[in-house]
Structures are given as C-alpha cells and as structure tokens.
Amino acid sequence: MQINAPHHRRHWLQRFGMGFGGLAAMHLMQRESVIASPSHSAGQPTHGVLNPTHHAPKAKRVIYLFQAGGPSQLETWDYKPLLNEKQGEPLPESVRNGQRLTGMSGNQSVLPLAGSIYKFDQHGENGTWVSELMPHMAKQVDRIAVVRSMTTEAINHDPAITFLQTGNQISGRPSIGSWLHYGLGSESENLPAFVVLITKGKGGQPLYSRLWGSGFLPARYQGVQFRSGKEPVLYLANPPGVSQGSRRQMLDRLKDLHDLEQERLGDPELATRINQYEMAYRMQSSVPEVANVAEEPKHILDLYGPDASKPGTFASNCILARRLAERGVRFIQLYHQGWDHHGNIPGGMKKQCQETDQPAAALLEDLRQRGMLEDTLVIWGGEFGRTNYSQGTLTATNYGRDHHPRCFSMWMAGGGVQGGVVHGETCPYGYNVVKDGVHVRDFHATLMHLMGIDHERFTAKFQGLDAKLTGVEPAEVIQPLLA
Questions:
Q1: Residue 194 above 70 pLDDT?
Q2: pLDDT band at 3 (very low <50, low <70, confident <90, very high)
Q3: Is the pTM of this model over 0.90?
Q4: With contact defined as beta carbons under 8 Å apart, do 334 and 317 qualify?
Q5: Which residues lie below 8 Å from residue 369, measured CB to CB, with a gap of 6+?
Q6: pLDDT for 116-148, tens place per residue?
Q7: Mean pLDDT for all residues in the chain
Q8: C-alpha distances out from residue 13 to 18, 23, 224, 274, Å
C-alpha cells in the first residue's frame, strides 16, 4: 500500500473513520478474488462449494499440531534397539541402497549408526512403544493412531513443509485449511474459519505466511494468524480517535455505496467484500474474548502444564486452539519450531518434548472431557524424519541426526480415527519403510475423507485444469486408521 498519498486523500480517509490501519485490516481480510465465492449473508455461518459433502463426515474440525523442523522418530515413536546394539558401526550400503543424502552429511567419511540415548517402554492395551521423553502422551496411546511409515520426497525443510501444508513442494498452492474453508465454509459468525498460532520466541527454520495462504483460491480463504499480546490480529483495532460507533457508521455507509454499485454492476464480489469488512468489525470483540486464555479455571491451566499461563507458548496455544474449536473455527494450525537437531539430540529433544508433551496430551484429554474429541481431528507431526546415523561426531553422550525423508512418524486422534493403532513399519535399522507406507498425499486424502470429502472429486479450476490438494499422483485413504 502506498502511504505517501496526497494530503486531501489522507484527510478523506480519516474523516471517513477508517485511516490507513483500517484499510490494512481490510487488505488482510480481502483482496480481489480470482474465483467466484459462494454467496452468504453478513453475520451468518457460510456454506462452502461442497453442500452437502460427498459423504457423512466423521470430523467437524481439525487441530494440526505441526512440529516444524523434523522431529526425530527414533527418539519418540519408532523404537529401534538394533541401532543401540550396532552403535558406531557404519550404515550398511545394503540398507542405504544408494539413497541420496543432504550436503550436510553426504561428505562424511563414515555414517555411524546411533541408537537413541532415551529408553522406550510399552504402554496402553496395544503395548505401543513410546519414548521416556513423552510420559504424558504415553498415557494417551489408546486414543491415538501412531503412523510409523510416513514418507515424502522432499529432503530439505522448505519444500518438505510446503508439501505437508499445501500438497506441493513448490509454493503458491492453497494450504489445507484454505481448501477446507473453500469446500466446507465457516461455522462461526464472529471468527475466521482458519486460524494460525505460532509458538512465540522459538528459533529454527523460518515459517512463511504462504504456508497458510490461499494460493489461487480467493484471499478470504487464507489463514488468519493470531498473536500473543495486546493485538492478537494485526490492524483489527480502530485507529486512535475512531470510536466503535464511528466505525459502525462508516461500515453502514460503505454498505450503502456497495449496494448502489451492486445494482449497477451485479458483481457478487462486492457483497463478499462488505461481508469481510463486517467480519473484521465483529472480530474486534470476539477475538479478545477467545484469546483470553487466562480466564480458564485453574484445573484446566494445571492440566496443560506450567507454561499454560504464559501467552504464546505451545501450552497456551493448545488451550486457545480448544477455545477456537468450541466457537466453530474449522481449521486451527499450530506451529512449534525447534526440532531441527543436526546436533545435540540429547539436550534438544528433551527441551522440545518438555514444551510439547504435556500440552498435547492435555488437549486430547480436555477435548474428551468436553465431548469434542469424537468430532475433532487432532494431528501431530513434522515435515520429515531424521537419519539413523549421526551427523558429525558420535560420542557416548552426544550426537545429531540429518534430514531423512524415507520414513518418519506422526499421530492422529479423534474425528473418526481409530485409537490404540500403530500403522506401518520401518526396517530394523529405522531407515526404510517395509510395511504399509503412507505418503504425504495419502495423509491428505485421509484427512479429507474424515471431513466428508472425496479428494478425487474436490477440485478448483486453476490455469485451465482441475487442481486438487492431492495433485495428480495416486493417493489413497488409509482405511486401517478409520474407526
């Protein structure tokens, strides 16, 4: 936006009760559409392009706990005692089988096998192996489906995370949340259908807004990032000197002007635009209310752990995710950075799990107690896994792991997912999938299926083609994960 506007234009905007902050809010909520949007009335839940869905959905909403950086499956969900037995021995070429390595470890003279420094024990009715790093999630294994056989082609962070979030390694495609908003619409009158929460103060690989962007879909379907602090959504508050009454009058007059233009042009996008302005107006009261995690009772804050009362932490964001889900938000995306452990696995993994284990388990328990877990799909996982060999020097007390796309672990719970299930298997070396592999596209197909969508039939026109989240390559719903 050009801010060096002539004086008379700035004066007009200020008199109209908007100011540049108001225009920025509008820009945040809406830009010109490239695809016709479903019509709807201001202040009402909206239908998507799929009305009704292809089949009865098992899940109404999704909370995706994305662990950015690639958490090591070998220190969390994929127990490989053979690596401890063969500690320090070179990775056999028969296991690697010529598979590509990153430039960070590809020039090492030896790739020494590294067993986990952490112990594993069996938990739950199914005897699921879980690392000692996750004592709280260990108590939830009968409610989750652990997938040990995830696989992707992407070996570096940016294409890998872009693939998980948009179905394509090249940026510019709609994110999962945008697809769901486009297809299913919104259940909330006063909140966005797609909200993004990022743990405050974490380092690691950068996160870009295009990861929750709408790509070639209209901008109204992009995710809205909520931040910790006094202004959860940027540019939403009225500019200094503009009262709520003035804002209301401005919106009413703006609607009158749009109605006149609508009579002249018959452009449905005008109605969509004014509805987005109205949503921003309603969010001025709804966002501060939902973001006030401090109003939760003490026993709920205690359930989520010591960080629950600290705004912007993973624990606080998990509570906020539940509050958003209660109020009809369709897709809630949490990002927690810091899992990129090329070195110092012992210290780094311990810290990350201390930040995330109790809150993730508490979220499942909290949703269950409220009767929401059965129709809320909860997902945990990163963009790829880590190597079974040490990157750099291997010692008795320290080691690192490089990127590994061939196999990694994630879990899903609620929303039509069968609990107490372990799906897929990797080889004894934890390097290759040997049973029931789940590709990223299969994961997307399964997520869509649980939301009542046939991924093959759910498309949007882009450059003359029927584009879809799962792309043109084969993708299958993972039936054993379904309850």
A1: yes
A2: very low
A3: no
A4: yes
A5: none
A6: 999 999 999 999 999 999 999 999 999 999 999
A7: 89
A8: 6, 9, 25, 17
In percent, the amount of the chain with pLDDT more than 90 equals 73
Are 316 and 306 in contact by the 8 Å Cβ rule? The answer is: no
| Alpha-carbon 164 to chain mean position | 9
* Torsion over CA: 182, 183, 189, 192 (sign): negative
Mean pLDDT for the stretch of residues 201-222? 93
Per-residue tokens: 186: 């919104």
Burial of 297 (0-12, 13-18, 19+ CB in 10 A): exposed
Strands 421-423, 144-151: pairing is parallel
Query: Residue 241 burial (CB < 10 Å; 0-12/13-18/19+)?
Result: exposed
For the cut 80, the answer to whether the pLDDT of residue 438 exceeds it is yes
Cβ 180 vs Cβ 60: under 8 Å: no
* Radius of gyration over every alpha carbon of the chain, rounded to an integer in angstroms: 24
Please report where in the chains the tokens 């780094």 appear, as a residue: 348
How far is the CA of 138 from the CAs of 124, 133, 221, 315, in angstroms?
8, 9, 36, 18
Read off φ and ψ for residue 97, nearest 5 degrees. Answer: 55, 40
Q: Are 339 and 382 in contact (CB under 8 A)?
A: yes
Are residues 60 and 194 in contact, defined by beta-carbon separation less than 8 angstroms?
no
What average pLDDT does range 84-107 have in this prediction? Answer: 94
CA distance 382 to 259: 47
Structure tokens at 451: 């939301």
